[in-house]
Amino acid sequence: MMEYCDANGDLTVDACEVHTCIVNVENEWRDEYCPGYGYVYCEQPFTCATCEGAWTCHDIENISLEVIAYYDTSVDGQINPEDNIESDHYQVLVEYCDFNNDGTVDSCEIHTCVVMCENEWRAEYCPDYGMVTCDCPFYVPECEGAWNCADIVYITDEVMMMLDTNNDA
Questions:
Q1: Share above pLDDT 90 across residues of the chain, in percent, rounded to a whole number
Q2: Residue 92: its pLDDT value, please?
Q3: Segment 90-126, tens digit of pLDDT
Q4: pLDDT for the residue 141
Q5: Rounded distance between C-alpha atoms, residue 99 and residue 123, angstroms
Q6: CA distance linking residue 158 with residue 64, whole number of Å
Q7: Structure confidence by residue, pLDDT tens digits, 59-77
Q8: CA–CA distance, 1 with 129 (Å, rounded to integer)
Q9: Is residue 168 domain-resident?
Q10: How far is it, in rounded angstroms, from Cα 117 to Cα 54?
Q11: Domain of 145, in residue numbers
């Protein structure tokens, strides 16, 4: 567990790292058993380091909505060539955000793309802060057996109760 979950390499694993680790395990499971379902992104429920200027899941949702409102001129919840979008803007969105390669960027793909941008920013400016993980607040299809954020918090608590014998989180 230490090798897989010790994100900052300090040879200890805190609740924030365990939570992020469980999110990563869930997303690996989804890749294998529910490809195309989308990743789970959960707001960190534990107190971790701080980073001035970092976006929250609420910020990311609002930014995603702004991008969709600006580019989705057909108001169908997706950005595609049928929208009144400049070709170069569309190409950039497809290159970086069309994760299922269908030529259309949907609201969850935009959301995931904004999460990725935030995490790249954090890696550069606040590397000890940790990555943001947020559930896509928009509609996603069902995948039997997939964990949601509440499941991940519960599992993280269980793991910490089992492994954190000195109760220092």
A1: 33
A2: 94
A3: 999 999 999 989 999 999 899 999 999 999 999 999 8
A4: 61
A5: 21
A6: 33
A7: 999 999 999 999 999 988 8
A8: 20
A9: no
A10: 11
A11: 2-163
pTM for the full predicted model: 0.61
How far, in Å, CA of 76 to CA of 69, rounded? 10
**Distant-in-sequence, close-in-space partners of 106: CB < 8 Å, separation ≥ 6:** 77, 78, 79, 138
Q: Is 136 helix (H, G, I), strand (E, B) or coil?
A: coil
Token digits of residue 43? 């707001």
Residue 26, domain member (yes or no): yes
Torsion angle (degrees, nearest 10) of CA 73, 77, 78, 84: 0
How long is the chain?
169
Where do runs of H (alpha helix) occur along 39-148? 57-71, 87-97, 107-125
- Can you read off the two tokens belonging to residue 151? 């499941």
**Number of domains the chain is built from:** 1
pLDDT digits (tens, 9 = 90+) for 5-44: 877 677 888 888 888 888 888 888 988 998 877 777 777 7
Helix, strand, coil % (nearest 5) of the chain?
50, 0, 50
Angle at 36 between CA 33 and CA 42, to 5 degrees: 85
Q: Is residue 111 part of a domain?
A: yes
pLDDT of residue 169: 63
Listed residue (47, 37, 98, 44) closest to 71, CA to CA: 98
